[in-house]
């Protein structure tokens, strides 16, 4: 079965072709980072308009690369939520329009489910069940993944997501958007131990996180010492070490609590080099295995959506015509989103995913 995946939930247009027999055939990504840079964050209206410009050429490129004619497709999967409403609508309308014309199923996918399953595209890949540490710009969650569509939330951030904290701290250190990679690069040049920031919630006794205080602590340090480049690098280093230590400690606790011995790291912050180093060390010490999707599949992409779509189709029909609705807020624990926000869905959620 050949499934085309379309991701447009935020500021990346991603398209991919996944073949259930032959694996990932092609994927292409267009990042809007430059477009939003001047504004210091994603501007939803600009994001939607740019997705409109990018998605069709990306589809053509992916089909060419995968040597697949449009008529050979068996299904189209798209991100139905959570994310920016206008941006999601672009992917949903293109997917459903194309699927209708081709008379093939269209499948709406939860963006975070895409991230959770993305390590299955890597080699070696984990086996179910595993614990996933999902660390993106909009989410920081520990999730038990027992199988496709079998997810249990173990803990999550009570305020800022890890990526969001990276981005905000980068901004106050005078780095551009998106700040995570830039802050990580600056931290490489910083000295360990000159500044020490708190390790929030490390001993909270649960698997939740909190990163907003850390960003404020970094701000206070930056005000006092941030005038020179060397000190800014030291602050970046202290910030990165604090975030990484908490993420690694809680992920290890989650493995102990569930009895699983495989950890999967997904989401943009999963590209962070220090996080990988610390987790690899812990895995060696504690005897568990860590899986990282390739860096290009850590951040938003169409491959994870195509793969999740293929898994859902393999599990049974789940398609109801070509009418589509997108879900800017959608709790992963709810298998099917509700059109009207329930109390749970009404929880504050960042627009970023
Ligand atoms: O999953 P993702 O691509 O997109 C969404 O959040 O939707 O994650 C992006 C986040 C951003 O906050 C970015 O700053 C962060 O991942 N990020 C990093 C690194 N690369 C990306 N954070 C720390 N270190 C990195 N190397
Ligand atoms: Zn994402």
Question: Which features characterize this protein?
Answer:
binds zinc ion, binds 5'-O-[(R)-(carboxyoxy)(hydroxy)phosphoryl]adenosine, 42% helix, alpha/beta, 353 residues
What sequence of helices (H) and strands (E) makes up the elements? EEEHHEHEHEEEHHHHEHEHH
- Residue fraction in strands: 15-25%
In total, the number of strands is 10
Oligomer: single chain
The small-molecule ligands in this entry are: 5'-O-[(R)-(carboxyoxy)(hydroxy)phosphoryl]adenosine, zinc ion
Helical stretch tally: 11
Q: How is the biggest beta sheet arranged?
A: 5 strands, mixed
> Strand arrangement, largest sheet?
3-2-1-4-5
Instruction: Tell the overall outline.
Output: globular
Explain what the structure shows.
It is a single chain. The protein has a 5-stranded mixed beta sheet with strand order 3-2-1-4-5, with helices on both faces. The C terminus is likely disordered. It has 11 helices and 10 strands. With 353 residues, the protein is α/β, with parallel strands linked by helices. The site of 5'-O-[(R)-(carboxyoxy)(hydroxy)phosphoryl]adenosine (KG4) has 21 residues, from α5 and α6.
């Amino acid at each position: 079965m050949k499934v085309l995946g379309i991701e447009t939930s935020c500021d990346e247009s991603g398209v991919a072709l996944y073949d259930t027999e032959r694996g990932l055939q092609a994927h292409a990504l267009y990042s809007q980072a430059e477009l939003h840079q001047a504004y210091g964050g994603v501007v939803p209206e600009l994001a939607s308009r740019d997705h409109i410009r990018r998605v069709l050429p990306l589809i053509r490129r992916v089909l060419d690369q995968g040597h697949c004619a449009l008529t050979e497709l068996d299904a189209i999967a798209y991100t139905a939520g959570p994310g920016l409403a206008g941006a999601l609508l672009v992917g949903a309308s293109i997917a459903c329009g194309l699927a209708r014309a081709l008379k093939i199923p269209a499948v709406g996918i939860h963006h975070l489910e895409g991230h959770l399953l993305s390590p299955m595209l890597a080699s070696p890949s984990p086996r179910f069940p595993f614990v996933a540490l999902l660390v993106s710009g909009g989410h920081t969650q520990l999730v038990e993944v027992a199988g496709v569509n079998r997810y249990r939330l173990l803990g999550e951030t009570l305020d800022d997501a890890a990526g969001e904290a990276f981005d905000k701290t980068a901004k106050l250190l005078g780095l551009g958007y998106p700040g995570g990679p830039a802050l990580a690069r600056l931290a490489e040049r910083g000295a360990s131990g000159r500044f020490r920031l708190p390790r929030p919630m490390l001993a909270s006794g649960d698997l939740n996180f909190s990163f907003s205080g850390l960003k404020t602590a970094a701000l206070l340090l930056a005000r006092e010492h941030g005038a020179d480049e060397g000190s800014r690098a030291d602050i970046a280093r202290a910030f990165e070490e604090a975030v990484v230590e908490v993420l690694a400690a809680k992920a290890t606790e989650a493995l102990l609590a569930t009895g699983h011995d495989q950890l999967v790291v997904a989401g943009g912050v999963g590209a962070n080099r220090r996080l990988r180093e610390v987790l690899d060390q812990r895995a060696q010490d504690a005897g568990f295995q860590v899986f990282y999707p390739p860096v290009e599949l850590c951040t938003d992409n169409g491959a994870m959506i195509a793969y999740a779509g293929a898994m859902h189709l393999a599990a049974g029909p789940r398609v109801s015509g070509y009418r589509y609705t997108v879900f800017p807020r959608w709790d992963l624990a709810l298998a099917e989103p509700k059109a009207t926000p329930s109390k749970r869905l009404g929880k504050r959620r960042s627009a970023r995913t």
